[in-house]
Amino acid sequence: MRAVVVNSFGGPEAVEVVETEVPRPGARQVRIKVAAASLNPVDAGVRAGVFGGAGERIGLGWDVAGTVDAVGAVDATGAAGAWSVGDEVVALHYGAVKPLGTHAEYVVVDADAVAPAPATVDAVHAATLPLNALTAAQALDRLEPAPGRSSLLVTGAAGAVGGYAVRLAARRGIAVTGLAREGDEEFVRSLGARHVTSDAVADREFDAVLDAAVLGEPALAWVRDGGRYVGVIPHAEPVSVRGVETGAVEVSGDGARLAELVRLLDEGVLTTRVAETYALEDAAKAHARLGEGGVRGRLVLVP
Q1: Separation of alpha carbons 93 and 127, rounded Å
Q2: Integer angstrom CA distances of residue 28 from 54, 68, 118
Q3: Which of 94, 96, 144, 286 is deepest in the core (most CB within 10 A)?
Q4: pLDDT tens digit string along 45-88?
Q5: H or E segment and range at residue 284
Q6: Residue ranges per structural domain of the chain
Q7: Is 24 exposed, middle or buried (0-12, 13-18, 19+ CB in 10 A)?
């Protein structure tokens, strides 16, 4: 099968499409025939060596939408037994340094990271959901904003993670302010933000900040004394000041939670955005496009 890997770190030119053996699922795992897999900024970080793994062949890709192709042995928990060959699914394949990612024709993932595919969108759109929506939901879990009482600032509110965070928080009754570029105000308001700004908000003190734009210390300055700050890059959060609790979400593959997000997508609460699609063999071109910036929505690879 074909798979996208990096054998040495660098720019888009480091991305290779290689032939490799089709992986076999083990106990509590399923194999998915990939229909679509989105390209995320974390893939560019892996390609550049941000997460280590020098000297290893590293597979790219975290998100996947496709069809269960094989099921591993069912253990005492019955984990793999929830899925059957032919099931249409989405999943998060967690891990920065792994031999094979979802940018491939087939991928093996843990059975408990899998959820039924959305019924209302195609595989290309479905593939944009797992990583970004799970990151937003799990970041909000860490912040624990109180409905009707807490104020929340989301930086990068028009982005993939930030957009989901705004929508999920607003749905819970949280007073959300979105920080986004000029021109994105209408979109961020449509997600449920009560206020949208493209300027510094140093005159505002928020109970919590979800820093999806990775601003770091400037975003920390907008948290009230004793409030909470959560970033989206593990171990890269700023040092705590003024009693502010700081941390970062490390997303995990959670099939049950993903199924809830799929349900919200099918109900029209969440929406997906696809910017462009690329054939798997054009993965390097997709990385180059991602590096140019200005992408609204996700780039998606199709085997």
Answers
A1: 12
A2: 29, 13, 23
A3: 286
A4: 999 999 999 999 999 999 999 999 999 976 545 555 689 999 99
A5: helix 283-292
A6: 2-129+272-302, 132-248
A7: exposed
Domain formed by 2-129+272-302, architecture:
Alpha-Beta Complex (3.90)
Report the largest interatomic distance among the alpha carbons of the chain, rounded to a whole angstrom. 57
Q: From the first residue on, what is the mean pLDDT of each consecutive set of 10 residues in the chain (303 residues)?
A: 97 98 96 98 96 95 98 66 92 96 98 98 98 98 88 95 97 94 93 87 81 94 94 91 94 96 98 97 98 92 97
pLDDT tens, position by position, 22-36 = 999 999 999 999 999
Superfamily for the 132-248 domain = NAD(P)-binding Rossmann-like Domain (3.40.50.720)
Give the tokens for residue 198: 């493209």
